[in-house]
Amino acid sequence: MSSAPLPRRLLLTPGPLSVASATRAAMLTDYGSREESFLALTGSIRSRLEALAGAGDSHVCVPIQGSGTFAVEATLGTLLRPTDMLLILANGVYGRRMAEICRRLGRPHQVMEFPETEPVSAKALDDALAASPHMTHVSVVWCETTSGILNPLDDIAHVAAARGKKLIVDAISAFGALPLDLSTLPAEAVVGSANKCLEGVPGLAFVLADKATLSAAAGNCPSLSLDLHDQWTGFTKTGQWRFTPPTHVIAALDQALITLEAEGGPAARLLRYSRNRDRLVEAMTRLGFEPLLPLSLQSPIIVSFHMPSAPDFCFSTFYHLLEKRQVVIYPGKLTQGETFRMGCIGDLDIADMERAVAMVAEVLGTMKREKIKC
Ligand SMILES: *Cc1c(COP(=O)(O)O)cnc(C)c1O
Question: What integer pLDDT is reported at residue 2 of this predicted model?
């Protein structure tokens, strides 16, 4: 008995993502964490990430074990002192998560909430900072993956800078595709992760932090393993990781960064993702699905769709039938209204988006024909 091999799995999610086979192949070598060749890989990813962000001499890349949230927590815990006050701009789950982290760490903060379908407002930030001079820091999520909305990072950064506030950016879902240049963007720290637009595998995150700020942050962090200052001085003093590094993940990221460069850098990747998004939105709209956001606010990272209003539409069946066809989508996380999400990032091109949407059409047909409910 023989059966046809399954088609490549398409992860239309916010990460982990479908990755290129060269990236997967880079994980076939077992590195010891103290080996020269592995330390060279660590140096390579750090300098490539710094170059990608236009870090120059001002900012330094500090990688940290774990997912993106670990790096956000490390950043807030290391850069905020108990006497500081952070204003968190929130229009989704990831903004609110920063507030939860600050609450756990005992770091004074205030949340400025915006509707999940509207970008955070630079004007509202300016008014708030004028009224609250005691704020020391501002934080923002660049692309809020909850909805897929893009927030106006440049405007926010310039308002914060004009008011003398330090900015912390969650760029996790955008880093590697959206243009970022720390030589012109005034930001204290920018957080990214391996497994989103960089198309690495999960297990590693990183922070591009202002060197002077980081130097002054010794002893701030209440956590040992998430102390960004100590993680950094570990690298500068010995070139070593303080604790067991995810060696395979780092090797994969190094390859993924080489692949990004070969593709033409973030600008080329942004173009590919934008085409993926356009094709996805167009084809899903033709099938009767309605995007949550107008195209003007819609990032090329992930698209939220309203859940079909037909009373017998069952999302869990829809999800599982797609999964059986090697297409993985993502549930919604919005507090208002039922949605689901489909990602545009990862090692995917227009042909993959077309295959995914063809599977959506097939599954809808099956659900209708066989009158499948939950
Ligand atoms: C993915 C993501 C994170 C981190 O989530 P993890 O589950 O820790 O990887 C943080 N912020 C944004 C905007 C994200 O998209």
Answer: 58
Topology at the third CATH level for domain 22-261: Aspartate Aminotransferase; domain 2 (3.40.640)
Measured from the CB, is residue 172 less than 6 Å from ligand 1? Answer: yes
Q: How far is the CA of 69 from the centre of ligand 1 (A)?
A: 6
Residue 141 in contact with ligand 1 by CB distance below 6 A = yes
Question: Quick one: three-class SS letters along 97-143?
Answer: HHHHHHHHHCCCEEEEECCCCCCCCHHHHHHHHHHCCCCCEEEEECE
pTM equals 0.97
Q: Domain limits of the chain?
A: 10-16+265-370, 22-261
Half-sphere exposure of 228 (CA within 13 A, CB side): 31
Q: Is 302 in the pocket of ligand 1 (CB under 6 A)?
A: no
Q: Computed over its alpha carbons, how large is the radius of gyration of the chain? A: 21
SS3 label, residue 65: strand
Q: Are 161 and 167 in contact (CB under 8 A)?
A: yes
Give pLDDT tens digits for 153-203. 999 999 999 999 999 999 999 999 999 999 999 999 999 999 999 999 999
Please give the CATH number for the structural domain made up of 10-16+265-370.
3.90.1150.10
